[in-house]
Amino acid sequence: MICRKPIGHTPYFDMNKTICRTAALLISGFSYANTVIPDVSPVAQGQHVFINIPQQRLFLYTDGKLTKVYPVAVGRAMTQTNLGEHKIGAKAYNPVWYIPKSIQKERGDGVKTIAAGPDNPLGPVFVRLGDPKLGLGIHGTNAPASVPGVRSHGCVRMKSPDALEFAKTIASGSPASVIYQMAGLNEDADRNLWLAAFRDPYGKNNLDIASLKKVLRNGQKHRVKPSRPRKSMLYSKTAPDRPSA
Question: Which residue from 241, 186, 166, 199 is spatially nearest to 53, judged by alpha carbons?
Fold first, then answer.
């Protein structure tokens, strides 16, 4: 869920109330028109994946241009998806799930593997994300209603049709950046600025309010043409978390 509010014609607003208490527009559908694009710098050539944890979205860029956006489920606060820079690894279709010992203990049913098929939580495909020692991947699911969300053990979960499409599209070796941007600013065709603020599932509290206020003040004074989208830094540029083996 996000708080989303038009601010292009508003002379004054309280930032904290805008982010936390304003009347929110709950976006239940999914399209580019209502998706806030994160502030990123994709590679100029080839593919680049960005996963924004608070937004629960995966963005695929090709040759520097956004080509696809997918809803995803990410790791819970206790089993966070590792932030930072990774690479897309090998792909496994119809994978067998070798259940990690930590999850075996959590399940408590003695099951160590789940064969490929409709009951497999990995769905029809598993795409390695980062160092294999991390045990992370981008994969399908047998519970499509769980996507989007913050509920995995660290992997990035997609609806199975999306996972298959993504796996067939993405090239192994492509860079994949797991980011944490709690807010975004977009401009619609009518030149209204829209602020979207996302929940903070990992308690990072890294929203840069001062930079956001500055961007909004500039947006009020100088209208930006739709053909020249605004890029703004709405979060603190702190060093990403180091993946743990």
Answer: 199
Judgement on whether residues 110 and 163 belong to the same structural domain of the protein: yes
User: Per the omega criterion (within 30 degrees of 0), is the bond before 148 cis?
Assistant: yes
Is 244 domain-assigned?
no
Q: What is the DSSP letter of 9?
A: T
φ, ψ of residue 5 to 5 degrees: the values are -145, 135
Which residues are catalytic, by number?
139, 155
pTM summary value: 0.76
Tens digit of each residue's pLDDT (9 = 90 or more) over 62-79: 999 999 999 999 999 999
Is the residue at 116 inside a domain? yes
What's 94's domain CATH number?
Answer: 2.40.440.10
**Edge-to-edge strand ranges of the sheet holding 84-93:** 65-71, 57-62, 47-52, 175-179, 84-93, 125-129, 137-139, 156-157, 73-75, 149-152
143 domain-assigned: yes
At residue 205's C-alpha, the angle toward residues 157 and 48, to 5°, is 40
Q: Residue 150 domain-assigned?
A: yes
The reply to whether 57 and 140 lie within a common domain is: yes
Residues 133 and 199 in one domain: no
Q: Find where tokens 């064969």 sit.
A: 115
User: pLDDT tens digit string along 118-175?
Assistant: 999 999 999 999 999 999 999 999 999 999 999 999 999 999 999 999 999 999 999 9
pLDDT score, position 243: 30
- pLDDT class of 26 with cuts at 50, 70, 90: very low
Say whether both 89 and 152 belong to one domain.
yes
Task: Give the residues across from 92 on adjacent strands.
Answer: 126
Question: Would you state the pLDDT for residue 215?
Answer: 64
Within a 10 A sphere around the Cβ of 103, how many other Cβ atoms?
A: 14
